Amino acid sequence: xxxxxxxxxxLIEFNPFTKIGKEWMLITAKYNDKVNAMTASWGGIGVxxxxxxxxxxxxxxxxxxxLIDQSDxxxxxxxxxxxxxxxxxxxxxxxxxxxKFKVSKMNVNYYEDIPFIDxxxxxxxxxxxxxxxxLPEQFIDPxxxxxxxxDGDLHTMYVGEILxxxxx
Length: 168
Prior knowledge:
Layout: E1 5-6, H1 16-19, E2 25-31, E3 34-40, E4 43-48, E5 51-59, H2 63-70, E6 73-78, H3 84-92, H4 100-104, E7 108-111, E8 114-117, E9 122-133, H5 143-148, E10 155-167
Antiparallel strand pairs: 1-10, 2-3, 2-6, 4-5, 5-10, 6-9, 7-8, 9-10
């Protein structure tokens, strides 16, 4: 396992359009003895309800969503570009069907009881604050539903308080 150190939130120089939208992240959650991770390219960080927060979007069909719903925490792990093929794999394959960690040769590490991916280089550990289902009647622009939700597999938006940032 790699050694991760706490990283002060006020030192973050983080372009979310690049880190999240182009380089992607793995969302990891645990419930009981089950851990799963999925690739995400939607989300952000900021301040909400007087707290430093991260927000993510997870489709209803994803196995990771089941774990987030049953847990109080989740993490966001960011990687160097040489891990892009593993990130593609985590976005395509379901943890319900196979052990993604075994196949990808990636490892789960923990900050307290919050799982994250050891091969990453930057981790945001969060306590879940809210879960808001995204519903078609909320769309002001009708093209959102036809462009992103043709199959009806909608997202839930999760907001998490940033408890710790880790870097290696």
